Each structure stands twice: as C-alpha cells, then as structure tokens.
Amino acid sequence: MLGYYEGFPENPQKTAFFTFSISNKRLQQTLIQTLYEINGKSFDLQEVSDPSIPNCTVIFEFGIAEENTFNYLDKEENKKLLKVLKKTPFQITDFYCAVRYYKTKNNKKTPLKFDYYMVRFLFENKLLETRIFHERGPEHATPDDIINFIIGRINEKLSRKIVRILEES
User: Fold this and answer.
1) What are phi and psi of 122, to 5 degrees?
2) pLDDT reading at 168 higher than 80
3) Measured between alpha carbons, how far is 145 from 71 in angstroms, rounded to an integer?
4) What is the mean pLDDT of residues 62-68?
5) Is 90 exceeded by the pLDDT of residue 147?
6) Banded pLDDT at 161 (limits 50, 70, 90)
7) How far is 141 from 137, CA to CA, in rounded Å?
8) CA–CA gap between residue 121 and residue 10 (Å, rounded)
9) How far apart are CA 143 and CA 146, in angstroms?
C-alpha cells in the first residue's frame, strides 16, 4: 500500500501532536510537496539543528513507503502521490529520511556519517501525530530537529502558521 510501511518500529524515539486548520488533503499535499522540494537540497546545519559541527551542511533524502520498501521522492513519485491523494487522503504516510552531513574546510567537502530516520505522519480530525524513529547514525540532527524543520517548512509554504504544536513526548 502506497504511503504505509509494514515494518515501522513500534517504539519511536519521538512522538509529537499538532493541530491544523486546513483540510487533511491540503495538509498532505503541502507535506508531500515540501518534502519533495527539500529533497536533495543543501542546508547549513544551523538551519536544522544547534550546530555541533562548525561549517557543516546537511542534505535530506526522503523516500515514501510502499509496503516493505521506500521509493525515492523524485518528480515521478511526487506526481504519483499527489494523484492518489486527489482521490482519497491518506490516514498514514511513512517516509524514510537519510540526513547527509558534509564538513567544509578549505573549500573541500568531507562527508561525515549520515543519520537514518523513519518518520510516520498520522492524520485524523484536524490532528497530526508524528512519530520518528532514529535507525542509526551520529544524530547530529535530533528527532526533534527533524520534526521541527519539516513543520517549519510546511508553515512557510502556507499563508500563515497553520500547523501548531499540541503535545510532545
């Protein structure tokens, strides 16, 4: 099933609840479009996290779940998701997120160990639940950082702050 990963871990490191004031479908369209747009782009680590490494850049790579695998969220996959979403909003969307780190010194980029996350978004009655599981890596960007970065980008795309924190654990 598109958007659902059967092997998502039962015990995520971070769970956060948000309220939102738009339709499920519009929020999901914005989420998918946001992840597609930041996919493969370079950001300074300080845009995502408290920088533990100076002169470090971050590149996100997102994949959307489809049964027991994840498909890279490229132009084709983005179109496919938005087409499915037009018919029926998802209740759950699972993503794989690789966070690549590069330290720059003397104009030379050196790759560092990457972080690997699984992120689940659950949508129900103007409530968004996010679950994030850190699979492996040094955690230069924490689960909190990843969620806050994604939600911040979603709110930037919308005309005003639509998604608001309700509760964290």
Assistant:
1) -115, 130
2) no
3) 23
4) 94
5) yes
6) low
7) 10
8) 14
9) 5
